[in-house]
Amino acid sequence: MVATDQAEHVDSSDRSIVTAAARSLLIAVPELTDRLVSEFARREGVILAAEVRRTLSGLCRSGLEAAIATLERPDGDRPDLRVARDIGSLWAARGLPLDSLLRLYRLAGQVLWESLLQAVGPAGAGTLAYQVGGVLRGIDQESTAAASAYRQTEGRLLPRGRAHVASAIDVLLSGRPADAAAVEAAADLLDLPGAGRYVVAVQRPGAPRALAAAYGRTTHGGMRFSWRRGRDTDRVLVLLGDATLDAFETVLRPLAQHAVGIGPCVGRLTEVGKSLRGAELALRTCTDRTTPEIARFDRRLPHALVLAEPDLADDLVREVLGAVLALPTRHREPLLDTLEAWLRCEGSAVATARALYCHRNTVLYRLRRLQELTARSLGRPSDLVDLALALYAVRSAVVGAADAAQPMIERTSGA
Questions:
Q1: Where in this chain does the record put each PucR C-terminal helix-turn-helix domain (predicted)?
Q2: Which residues are paired to 202 by β-bridges?
């Protein structure tokens, strides 16, 4: 992705040194490509999904091969400029920012120059130094060609530019019912069918730091992604096609930098608001939003139900755990911690004791005490559901749930 200026002249012996070095680099193109892509991702602070990495690697490999061919035959045509224009057009069509493309070209020039120096060795370094001006001009010519093609393609795509794409995604992911005309216009702009298997994912805080996830539209494994990056929320609308939610989760996982909620699959574009609400509820079930946990709505329905109905959650907490919450903190928390650990340990008192660093008899005592206070049995499935949901409501800090027992706690504490 860098070339020497055609006007740069060296004698035949010097030229043979550069030609030999260029030929040796052709063998190393795969290695140079991996180095360039990895360093670009590191500098940009992004994580590249497998398919995105393959696409970017293909572009970089083509650029490097064309640049090396120009180094080898400086008096021929300029394949590097043709490839640069192709890369610029593709970069714009994918909705990626121009400044990142220019940074990629600068980095490619650095990688190739360092590789040339290594290839010619100390004996040829002096010869190569005479061509540094031509190499710099080559970098400038390539990046200029890429930028020009980028702007031309971006102009042709208007009104399908990034701003219009972002607005169209906003219409579909507003969380509010949009009028039919607005949905139809957004679907047309994004080239999305009205009927299809759609799902929405949400991530907070503002992320994901991934090239694919940051801008516009991308495709992965037959799925079509429409990404919308916000100040405090990142959203993606996905046309699944024949892919499963498991396949979508697999693609999303390396892009996730924080907790992510995945909504239910819906059958029409007009229903994506339902998937958005489900994704937001699923996200709220994550206990630590700073870790890359992925929560799927279809796997957290009971928890989502509690979060979706805070008034009912209040009633549930008051009815089931009211007597427990009325205890002083030093008595209340060990009971709740034990119930939580016992549920996590799938009903094993031994495993619960190990998790809490206490004796098994202590666990059994606390569980008996809990059953006495709640008038519910851990051996009765319906009672167990009540206890688990009420505990989750308390632990999730559902609005109003903890306050429901506050008067009782204050009265007990002051007694």
A1: 335-392
A2: 235, 261
**Cα–Cα distance between 192 and 206 in angstroms, integer?**
25
Spatial CA neighbour of 374 closest among 387, 388, 385, 360? 387
pTM of the model: 0.55
The letter for the amino acid at 24 is S
Q: What three-state secondary structure class fits 108?
A: helix
- Burial state string for 2-40 with b = 16 or more CB within 10 A and e = fewer than 16: bbbbbebebeeebbebbeebbeebeeebeebbebbbeeb
Contact (CB, 8 A) for 279 and 296: no
In angstroms, rounded to a whole number, what is the distance separating the alpha carbons of residues 324 and 394?
12
Dump pLDDT digits (tens) for 171-226. Answer: 888 766 667 788 888 888 787 888 899 999 998 765 444 434 444 566 777 788 88
Q: How far apart are CA 405 and CA 133, in angstroms?
A: 76
Closest-CA residue to 366 (of 400, 403, 337): 337
Which helix (DSSP H) or strand (DSSP E) does residue 235 occupy? strand 234-239
Element (H, E) at 294: strand 294-296
One-letter amino acid identity for 149? A
Domain ranges of the chain: 12-157, 163-299, 309-414
CA–CA dist 308, 284 (Å, integer): 10
Q: Cα dist. 53→34, 61, 86, 225 in Å?
A: 9, 12, 18, 16
CATH class (in words) of the domain with range 12-157 = mainly alpha
pLDDT at 266 over 90: yes
Q: What is 309-414's CATH number, 3.30.1370, 2.40.50, 3.40.630, 1.10.10?
A: 1.10.10
